[in-house]
UniProtKB/TrEMBL annotation:
PANTHER family: COPROPORPHYRINOGEN III OXIDASE, MITOCHONDRIAL, OXYGEN-DEPENDENT COPROPORPHYRINOGEN-III OXIDASE, MITOCHONDRIAL. The record marks 173 as: Important for dimerization. This is Oxygen-dependent coproporphyrinogen-III oxidase. It comes from Novimethylophilus kurashikiensis. InterPro entries: Coprogen_oxidase_aer, Coprogen_oxidase_aer_sf, Coprogen_oxidase_CS.
Length: 299
């Protein structure tokens, strides 16, 4: 396996995504390079108070260490205690307009090392969409693009990774999905290194195709305090998932990663309410009844 090729691709992907988002927003990202005392470092590209993005981050990291964190070996306990090397790009975008959805994407590669043995490697990643006001055409476009990213590598991958995403991005304590899903995969090596890497690259390369048309459709929708209030309330669910369940957040914190970069995924304005329920038949209620459900959006 060629880990340098992975790093080169990820750095290029970060640059392409940042350029695409800057073109839409009209404001530049802050570029912040950092080093990790235990080994490795990264580049955090962050935008706050943009014209379109209220907050967004597109982060590259390449870290290494003597002991694989528990979150990374949870599904493969036989690897616990090995040294590791990991590289990835992770992004979360929180637009200001409540009609524009939040989005998350990441692609990553792990390698677990042990003296005298061949390294064990795998890829992970995916993308998912979290609307505050649902549009069927947006959900369909996002899922169609996810399918297109995977189809060249096997017809069975999209339904499998779509189902994996539905299961993963689910708030068990709320009994509700985080959003309308997308695709998710982890511990993936079944196609061999070159094809597994190619599949992961295809996911990363399809992100702008999946999200920018939706963002551009929604950023000029008129909105008021009601919509902003509901957006802030629903953003609370995003925070709950990231802090309680997200393996990427847990890996970053457990591996001694840079806290500012790890928590850039948090939205800037969030609200919680006690036992709040949306008004019956309202657009807010429709988010729950029509969009926060496990559904085949391409059927």
């Amino acid at each position: 396996m060629d880990f340098n090729s992975v790093k080169e691709y990820l750095l290029d992907l970060q640059e392409r995504i940042v350029d695409g988002l800057q073109h839409v927003d009209g404001k530049n990202f802050l570029h912040d390079s950092w080093q990790r005392p235990e080994g490795g470092g990264g580049i955090s590209c962050v935008m706050e108070e943009g014209n379109v993005l209220e907050r967004g981050g597109v982060n590259f990291s390449h870290v290494s260490g003597d002991r694989l964190p528990p979150s990374a070996s949870a599904n493969r306990p036989e690897l616990a205690g090995r040294g590791f090397e990991a590289a990835g790009v992770s992004l979360v975008l929180h637009p200001r307009n409540p009609y524009a959805p939040t989005v998350h994407m990441n692609v990553r590669c792990f390698m677990a090392k042990k003296a005298g043995e061949a390294p064990v490697w795998w890829f992970g990643g995916g993308m998912d969409l979290t609307p505050y006001y649902g549009y069927e055409e947006d959900a369909q476009h996002f899922h169609r693009t996810c399918r297109d990213a995977l189809t060249p590598f096997g017809q069975e991958l999209h339904p499998r990774f779509k189902s994996w995403c539905d299961d993963y991005f689910y708030l068990k304590h709320r009994k509700e999905p985080r959003g309308v899903g997308g695709i998710f995969f982890d511990d993936f090596n079944e196609l061999g290194f070159e094809q597994s890497f190619a599949m992961t690259k295809s996911v990363g390369d399809h992100f702008l195709k999946a999200y920018l048309p939706i963002l551009q459709r929604r950023i000029n929708e008129p909105y008021g305090e009601r919509e902003r209030d509901f957006q802030a309330y629903r953003r609370g669910r995003y925070v709950e998932f990231n802090l309680v369940y997200d393996r990427g957040t847990l890996f970053g914190l457990q591996s001694g990663g840079r806290t500012e970069s790890i928590l850039m995924s948090m939205p800037p304005i969030v609200k919680w309410r006690y036992d709040w329920q949306p008004e019956a038949h309202s657009p807010e209620a429709m988010l729950y009844s029509d969009f926060l459900i496990h559904k085949d959006w391409l059927a």
